[in-house]
Each structure stands twice: as C-alpha cells, then as structure tokens.
Design goal:
The chain is mainly alpha-helical. Helices cover about 75% and strands about 0% of the residues. It folds into two domains: about 220 residues, no CATH class; about 200 residues. Helix 5 packs antiparallel against helix 7 and helix 11 runs antiparallel to helix 12. About 0% of the residues have low confidence.
Length: about 425
C-alpha cells in the first residue's frame, strides 16, 4: 500500500543539503512519498493532510531547485544566506505536520486493520522525526548565518575589528561540521523510519485488509478513480514543465531533464485509470535514460569544451544531438498526453444535453492547449540547451516562459478534472 515508496522517498531526504546544493534532490523524495500515499490518503484524514503537505513541499523544493543556479550566479553571500534561511523555515512549516500526520495516520489505519505495531516504534519515530526536521533546518541555515559576523557587513569598522577573529573565518569548518551532524541525525531517522514502515509493510494480513477496504470503498468506483487520476497528474505535469526550464552554468544543465522525464512517467502511471498509457510510460522511461546519459556527458565535457556559445567540437555536437533526441521524445509524450486527455473527456465527462457539441469542443481545446504548452516548454528548453539562451536576461526569460507554460498546463488539467467531478 505504498510503504515501499515512502521508505524510498525518505532515503532522498535524510542526506542534507550542502549550502544551496542538494546532492540527493528533495523534490524526488517528496514525489515518491506523495505517490506512496496515493491510495491510503483516500482512506484516512491524517494521511490525506500529509499527502497535501508533501505536495506543497514538492513545489517548494522544485522552486528551490530552479532558484539555486540563479542565486549562485549572483555570488552574493548575503542573498544566498537569505534564500537558504527562507527555504529552511518554509520547509519546516510543512514538513513537521507532514511527518506527524504520516505517522499518526499510518499507525491508526494499520492498527485498525489488525497490525500489532509496537508503541516503542511509534514513539521513537515521533521524537526522531521532530529532531530531524528542526535539526535539518537549523544545521542548513547555521553556516550561512555566519555571514552576519563578517566585518564587511558592519556599519563601522576599526583596525581592531579587522584583526578580530569571527565565526565567518571558520565558515568552511562550521559548514562541514553541520553537514556531518545533520547527516548523522538523518541516518538515525532513516533507520527508525525503515523499521517502522517496514513493520507495517511486512504485516501481510493488515496490508491485505487495507487493500480490500480500498477496493470496496474506492477502487470499484471507476469514475472517481478517473477523476483522481487526472487531478493527481496535474501536479506532476506542472512540475515536469517547470523542470524543463533550461538553467545552464558553463554548459551544464543544473536542473537535469531526467527529473522531468521521471515526473512524466509518474503522471502517465496515474493516468492509466483513464487510458492505456503503457506506450507513453515506456517512452518516458527511455527518455529518462537518455537524459541521464546526456547529463553525464555534459558533466564530463562541459568544463573542457564550453566557451559560452555554439561550439563545433565533437563532444558538444554529441551532447546537442542527444538532447535534440530527448526533446523530440518529450514533444511526442505531450502529443500522447493530448490524446489520453481527449479519451478521458469522452469516457468520463457528462455533457449538457442542450449544447453537447460546444461543451466537448471546449474541453478538447483545453486538452490541445495542454499539449501545445508542453511542446512549447520543450522548445524553450531545447533552445537553451543549444546555447541560444545562455546569456543575461534572455536566459531568465526562458525560465519564466517555462514556468508560465507550466501554469497553463496546471490550470487546464485542473479544469478537466473539475468537469469530470461533476459526474460523481
């Protein structure tokens, strides 16, 4: 019932960020946990609230991922400190109740289904999750706050001030120490989470009881499943479009496109309730693999061959060709998405008898607009990949365009889901 995905998601969260840079992107962890809660969140109020908070955290971490290269490019320590501090506070606000609701909801649902979860497991995870979330935020922001002790930011500086040692002088040591401490807390939390959710997952009787309840109350309602699938896919597709925004530093895409491919794979998996999406799922997996290969080549070749514009070198042309193939596949995926949504409109929406043709035409236009916006996002991202949006304001205009297209996808997919809900 999704416990494996929850454990996999927490595996991406326990490794802390190093300043602005997150080696194991939290956005993937939040997406996995939200996916793991897809079924159980429909059976329990606490789990429903937890799933909503993890979706908010998904958007928040994606925003951080997009802003990171722009902030790093400014080379302003004060700005970097403010960004890290702001995101640390915002993530804590959502993550504390998310883990609390996740624990309480899963405990209640499993015990009602007959799983004998030791109270010690529950209590240990309760305390450790709070220590982990608060410690994660404090230890991420602490090294950045040493900037405030730097003499350069003092209103009046004397010779004695310049010679006096400050915390800023030991910033690198503090950063490493905070990273290690945060990692140790994260490892303890991960071990306890694996023990807790592993216990729930291994109890086959309670898992079967929960699955039977889901099938009886929700799974047999085909229209509701279709509505939930389209509604859930709206968030995943929006995140995928935003992840396509090309942000390049010295030729390397710092928001890898395989994240967008993975999100689209998850979206097509959700849409399997409204159409046969197997073809799109296979293409998404292939696209993710190709994007990962392209990203690896960029890391290897960019520093040696990148010169800020088009380059005739063989490595650059190899990467460019691979990226071109990836974006053709992305465009094809959005074309398939258009067809799947049209199929959902025909099967699961109820047109008014007085204007059935106009009603369906309006929904078909929304489906087409989603496909066109997605393909346009691919085009903008591909252009940035070929070097046309590397410099200055134009590069950030490309990012803004991708975000705007993501909003178009979200609004129109949400409208289609709203029309499907009228039939429930």
């Amino acid at each position: 019932m999704g416990y494996g995905l929850i454990i996999a998601g927490i595996a991406f969260l326990f490794v802390p960020a190093f300043g602005l840079y997150d080696f194991m992107p939290d956005v993937i962890g939040y997406a996995l946990i939200a996916a793991g809660l897809y079924k159980t969140s429909q059976l329990n109020g606490d789990l429903h609230s937890a799933a909503r908070n993890f979706r908010y955290l998904l958007y928040l971490s994606l925003a951080r991922l997009i802003l990171t290269p722009a902030v790093a490019g400014l080379r302003d320590e004060m700005t970097e400190m403010l960004v890290v501090f702001a995101f640390a506070i915002a993530e804590t606000v959502f993550l504390l109740p998310a883990f609390s609701e996740l624990r309480e909801g899963s405990y209640y649902l499993s015990t009602r289904a007959g799983c004998d979860v030791p109270d010690k497991y529950h209590d240990d995870l309760l305390l450790t999750s709070r220590v982990f979330v608060i410690g994660r935020a404090v230890l991420a922001a602490a090294p950045e706050l040493t900037v405030l002790t730097n003499n350069a930011y003092k209103e009046s500086v004397t010779v004695d001030d310049l010679q006096r040692a400050t915390l800023y002088d030991s910033r690198s040591v503090i950063t490493v120490a905070c990273f290690v401490i945060s990692l140790m807390i994260g490892v303890v939390f991960f071990i306890l989470a694996v023990r807790y959710f592993g216990r729930l997952r291994s109890d086959k009787v309670s898992v079967a009881a929960i699955a039977a309840r889901y099938d009886a109350e929700i799974g047999s309602d085909e229209e509701k499943q279709a509505f939930m699938s389209v509604k859930a896919s709206a968030s995943l597709l929006t995140a995928a479009c935003a992840a396509l925004s090309g942000v390049f530093i010295r030729g390397v895409d710092v928001i890898p496109d395989f994240i967008a491919a993975a999100l689209m794979l998850a979206a097509f998996y959700r849409l399997r309730a409204v159409a046969k999406t197997k073809k799109a799922a296979v293409v998404s997996a292939v696209t993710a693999a190709l994007c990962a290969g392209s990203f690896s080549l960029e890391l290897v070749t960019a520093q040696k061959h990148y010169n800020g514009s088009f380059s005739p070198s063989a490595p650059f042309l190899t990467v460019a060709s691979l990226r071109a193939l990836c974006f053709v596949l992305f465009a094809y995926l959005f074309y398939l998405l258009y067809g799947y949504l049209c199929e959902a409109v025909v099967k699961y929406t109820k047109a008014p008898t007085f204007d059935e043709e106009g009603y369906l035409r309006g929904l078909y236009n929304r489906c087409k607009l989603i496909g066109i916006a997605g393909i346009a996002a691919c085009a903008v991202s591909a252009a940035s990949g070929f070097g046309m949006l590397y410099a200055g304001v134009v590069r950030f205009a490309g990012i803004a365009a991708c975000v705007a297209l993501a909003v178009i996808v979200y609004v129109n997919t949400g409208k289609i889901a709203e029309e499907m809900s009228r039939r429930l």
